[in-house]
């Protein structure tokens, strides 16, 4: 047999190894470009869950509505709070929590669950990340309806600060993506992470001011600084404050911005180093 | 330019047993010092010393015994596995067809499955919508396409999957065998479509045990053994060495004629990287 001429073929192998920033960013860019694919799959995931049900994805909204109403009333009574302020408080807290815990728990399984797909069809890791993030965003959108219903019923006073909720929610989404990337890659390698995260989420839920109001803790002689050590507290606050017309606390924004930058840096580093390993690990 | 270049590539699989895959060992292992020798993760060397240079127009057969590394090589060429050692450069849109069932969701309709599978193979939604009639025609599923996939028989699923896969325009087509489970009449039809697909594609690598199929679709061959390339060259030559006899002795003169034409085609040879 004859060898092809060297002119036709690059004589030397490319210098870059699979662990390069360029390849990590190519993964992200190419993944994002396949918008049709991940958007379709993300929406499909939701439709899938409610297939053959009569009202379909509206169940997401209804179940959130029921939880929020029941727990809102219960905890308002327990803590002696005014239902008019506590119900919206619980509603927004739950909606944001739903997104955060969804990204965390689904994030740990994002590659493990897609084993079949990943071993048979080459796609950037980012496609799976965006599919998950998009699914969580859609769920968040469904749940947000509850907020507007509560808003209408309770006639809450909201000011111009309401519009700060938009960047707050966008920040939240940006965090969902890095969380899924980081936890997804680590969990694929270390299979103990998903159950650990799963069991911790329950605990963190009760430790985070969602059904209970942070101010009560202070009034009852508790120390709020402990609650503030919980990063999720700040995430919930930046969305909750503008949506409830409360005073904006800029420290919360600073903390969230800091974690976002740091989180993305770590996630990108992990993506750069272990992107090519993920298919070997699943 | 459609091309695949691989330099001294190896694919090593770490095998984590339940213990070494947990954090416990990684965390405790460092603080507790060396206990025993089980710190190392056992590794399976699935591929080693792979050197390849494939160009536009080549039709490569991949032969070898079970476990020789054919499927792993296909995954390396598709970019699913990046080499653990060595390098690989793949230029062109890759359409891997390894498992007809993967990416098919039993709960959604055949139509939706067509779109999703197409999107995964690098097509756009619009392109796929244009092809739906063609796929419906070929798969003979008709109104069944509106039904959820779980109502299909195995044969119907294969038809659908094959219909989608053969409707795309791939630059690099990677085929793994597993095209069975359908009646022979349909298989003849599938063959025609597969041949068409191969003609449309820029580059083909086809792993199969069927001499007949290989003779029809390929002109050159790679013989894999124990994770390495044992021989690469013209199809007939490699197959003769692999089988120990000329597999095309009994082939019709027409097929032989077609193969001779392919062999005389200067673009139809595999380049080697040995320096």
UniProtKB/TrEMBL annotation, chain A:
GO BP annotations listed: lipopolysaccharide transport
The keyword Nuclease is assigned to this record: no
Leader sequence segment: none
Subcellular location: Cell membrane
Membrane-spanning residues: 54-75, 87-112, 132-154, 160-186, 193-212, 250-271
Pfam families: ABC2_membrane
GO molecular function, one term: ABC-type transporter activity
Domain called ABC-2 type transporter transmembrane: residue spans: 39-241
Disordered: annotated span: 1-20
Matching InterPro entries: ABC2_TM
Membrane topology: Multi-pass membrane protein
Keywords, in A-Z order: Cell membrane, Membrane, Transmembrane, Transmembrane helix, Transport
GO CC annotation terms, alphabetical: plasma membrane
Cited PANTHER family: CAPSULE POLYSACCHARIDE EXPORT INNER-MEMBRANE PROTEIN CTRC (PTHR30413:SF10), INNER MEMBRANE TRANSPORT PERMEASE (PTHR30413)
Family: Belongs to the ABC-2 integral membrane protein family.
The protein's name: Sugar ABC transporter permease
Source organism of the structure: Actinopolyspora mortivallis
TrEMBL record, chain B:
KW Transmembrane helix (keyword) present: no
Key words of the record: ATP-binding, Nucleotide-binding, Transport
CDD domains: ABC_KpsT_Wzt (cd03220)
Gene Ontology, cellular component aspect: membrane
GO molecular function: ABC-type transporter activity; ATP binding; ATP hydrolysis activity
One Pfam family from the record: ABC_tran
Cited SUPFAM superfamilies: P-loop containing nucleoside triphosphate hydrolases
Entry-linked InterPro entries: AAA+_ATPase, ABC_transporter-like_ATP-bd, ABC_transpr_TagH-like, Bact_Polysacc_Export_ATP-bd, P-loop_NTPase
Source organism superkingdom: Bacteria
Domain ABC transporter: 23-251
SMART domains: AAA
Keyword Flavoprotein: no
Family designation: Belongs to the ABC transporter superfamily.
Protein name as it appears in the record: ABC transporter ATP-binding protein
Organism: Actinopolyspora mortivallis
Taxonomic classification: Bacteria, Bacillati, Actinomycetota, Actinomycetes, Actinopolysporales
């Amino acid at each position: 047999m004859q060898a092809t001429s060297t002119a036709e073929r690059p004589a030397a192998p490319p210098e870059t190894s699979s662990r390069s920033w360029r390849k990590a960013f190519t993964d992200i860019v190419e993944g994002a470009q396949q918008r049709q694919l991940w958007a379709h799959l993300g929406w499909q995931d939701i439709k899938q869950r409610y297939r053959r049900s009569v009202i379909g994805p509206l169940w997401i909204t209804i179940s959130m509505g029921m939880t929020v109403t029941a727990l809102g009333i219960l905890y308002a009574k327990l803590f002696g709070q005014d239902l008019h302020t506590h119900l919206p408080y619980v509603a927004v807290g739950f909606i944001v929590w739903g997104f955060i815990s969804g990204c965390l728990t689904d994030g740990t399984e994002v590659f493990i669950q897609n084993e079949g797909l990943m071993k048979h069809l080459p796609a950037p890791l980012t496609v799976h990340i965006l599919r998950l993030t998009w699914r969580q965003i859609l769920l968040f959108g469904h749940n947000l309806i509850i907020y507007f219903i509560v808003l209408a019923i309770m006639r809450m006073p909201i000011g111009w600060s309401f519009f700060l909720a938009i960047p707050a929610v966008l920040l939240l989404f940006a965090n969902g993506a890095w969380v899924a990337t980081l936890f997804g890659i680590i969990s694929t390698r270390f299979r103990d992470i998903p159950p650990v995260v799963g069991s911790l989420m329950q605990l963190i839920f009760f430790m985070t001011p969602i059904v209970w109001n942070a101010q009560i803790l202070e009034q009852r002689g508790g120390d709020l600084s402990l609650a503030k050590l919980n990063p999720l507290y700040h995430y919930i606050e930046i969305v909750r404050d503008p949506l409830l017309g409360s005073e904006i606390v800029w420290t919360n924004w600073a903390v969230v911005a800091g974690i976002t930058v740091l989180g993305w840096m770590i996630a990108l580093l992990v993506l750069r180093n272990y992107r090519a390993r993920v298919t070997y690990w699943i | 330019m459609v091309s695949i270049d691989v330099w001294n590539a190896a694919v090593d699989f770490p095998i984590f047993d339940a213990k070494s895959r947990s954090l416990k060992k990684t965390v405790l292992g460092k603080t507790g010092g060396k206990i025993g020798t089980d710190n190392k993760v056992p590794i399976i060397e699935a591929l080693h010393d792979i050197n390849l240079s494939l160009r536009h127009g080549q039709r490569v057969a991949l032969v070898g015994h079970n476990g020789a590394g054919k499927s792993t090589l296909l995954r390396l060429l598709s970019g699913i596995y990046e080499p653990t050692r060595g390098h690989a450069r793949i230029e062109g849109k890759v359409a891997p067809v390894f498992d007809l069932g993967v990416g098919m969701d039993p709960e959604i309709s055949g139509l939706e499955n067509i779109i999703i599978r197409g999107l995964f193979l690098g097509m756009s939604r619009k392109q796929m919508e244009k092809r739906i009639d063609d796929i419906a025609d070929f798969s003979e599923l008709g109104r069944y396409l509106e039904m959820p996939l779980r109502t299909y028989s195995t044969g119907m699923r294969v038809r659908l999957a094959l219909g989608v896969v053969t409707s795309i325009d791939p630059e690099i087509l990677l085929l793994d065998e597993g095209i069975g489970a359908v009646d022979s009449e349909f298989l003849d039809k599938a063959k025609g479509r597969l041949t068409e697909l191969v003609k449309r594609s820029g580059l083909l690598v086809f792993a199969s045990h069927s001499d007949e199929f290989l003779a029809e679709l390929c002109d050159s061959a790679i013989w894999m053994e124990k994770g390495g390339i044992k021989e690469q060259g013209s199809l007939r030559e490699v197959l003769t060495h692999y089988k120990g006899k000329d597999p095309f002795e009994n082939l019709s003169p027409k097929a032989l004629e077609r193969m001779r034409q392919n062999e005389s085609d200067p673009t139809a040879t595999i380049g080697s990287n040995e320096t």
